[in-house]
Amino acid sequence: MNRLNLSVIALATTLFASATFADDETYVTQHYSFSLDDIDEVYIDGGIGEMEVIHSDGDEINIELEIEGKRRFWIMNKRDISDLELVQSKRGDTLRISLNEDDIEHVDIHWRIELPSVAHTHFNLGVGKITGEFADTELELDIGVGAADIAIARNGAGRVETSAGVGSAELHGASNVVNKRVMISEETYGYGEGKHHMELNVGVGEVKVRLTDNALVSF
Question: What does residue 103 show for φ and ψ, rounded to 5 degrees?
Answer without folding.
Answer: -90, -10
